[in-house]
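Project standup — Tuesday

K.O.: blocked on the structure for the chain from last sprint. Re-posting the sequence here as requested.
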Amino acid sequence: MNQNITEMMYAWIDEHTEELISVLQDFARIPSISRADLAAENAPFGPDCRKMLDYALKRSAEMGFEVKDHEGYAGSAWMGDYNNALGIIGHLDVVPLGSGWVYPPYGATRTGDFLIGRGVADNKNACVMGLFLMRMFKELNIPLRHGLRVIFGMSEETGMQDMAYMVEKKEVLPVLSLVPDAGFPVCKAQKGSMSGYVSIESGKDLANIYAGEAVNIVPPEATIEVKIPAGEMKKAIAGLDEKLYDVEETESGCKLIAHGRPCHAAAPWGGLNAIHLLMDALKRAPLKCEQSKKAVDAMFIFTDGYYGECADIQYEDPVSGKTTLNIGLARTDGDRFQLHIDSRMSIAADPDEMQAKLAAAAEKLGFRADKLSNTKPFHLPDDHPAMNALMNAYRELTGRDDKAYAIGGGTYSRVISTAVTFGLSMKEGVERPSDIPESHGGAHQADEFLHITSFMKAVKIYASALYNLDQAM
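H.V.: unblocked you, prediction finished:
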């Protein structure tokens, strides 16, 4: 890469760091949980996402870029050749807040070398970075063979209907897009996914189960109403860890509350599923209704383990690793309890076969399988033309020789065939705030944070990566 251009880009980024962080704070202070249940015309993901997209397009236009609103599903900002562009695809929707925050969830609080708030790292930082990198190329007048384009997604956290819409409507997409929604260096493989619901009759002793706020998070809390006196329930669970449970008296018996630990569904072994804790307690309770006992036993089995053992879908390959299974939501549906399935399947597994196995295992336990669907895995070959351009940009700035990797999480690369996931999380040098609990700080956790120094290093890697791609393609 041309040394003079590199020095110019890095100097520009250093000079604009504070401005970039300020704009990111503005973005992160706008609530933008994707809510398809609140859909309206040109707002398929609800009013908050509509407000967020309007703001992003307004700021993009103020920076001098062309903009396009894709009917509320997504937005685009670009410079140069729209039909021959390199892209950055980020998402402006965020996961629900959860509880227990130390800092204001939408405060985007600056404290030392950190920003703390929902969306500062997942994934509004990527969208703001894309806008500033376009400004950099424009203001430095660096000659490019391609246009540059930032695409703002609005439902990445709730099924990627935004990019599915772009594909279905045959919208013009960049010739190659980078997705800054994982870690460095290049993500060469993403597992396939399976989602849907199973439900089971609750019986007369159980009512009103509620657990989880997002399908892709291990649920940190679960509650259920039980027709057992509070005293009897407390006696039944006396041998369990008392910190994990609360029992509240009700008119018809008691409410049992279980406290787990959240984490991303792609790595469920890092969490503690509150639904499973709830069922563990109820197995010890003196339930009288046989159907209620059957429901508890079935849900206990179905929420046990991380790798799909309950459904006989364990699968592993050397590139992407093990299949995982998370039950992230539990809700009452009439006289039935409904559980949401989130499985990340190894790239060597056949998604249709895994779906059939899970449905059969669920039905054997007494569940009814509803609306199961799957997506195919993503795999970027080592000889893809983007691989060297991206890996070299990473190596030049970090001096590291990390290898391309696979993940269980899903990014837009799974939907957009010409998209490659690259960064933004760094391998080393990432500090964390000292005043938040160890269980806080991750992308889907309370007190989500961004280490500014590490982030700005990632911005420089992206600047080099875009230039390398432009010259290589």
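K.O.: great, moving the ticket to review. The mean pLDDT is 95. The chain is about 30% helix and 25% strand.
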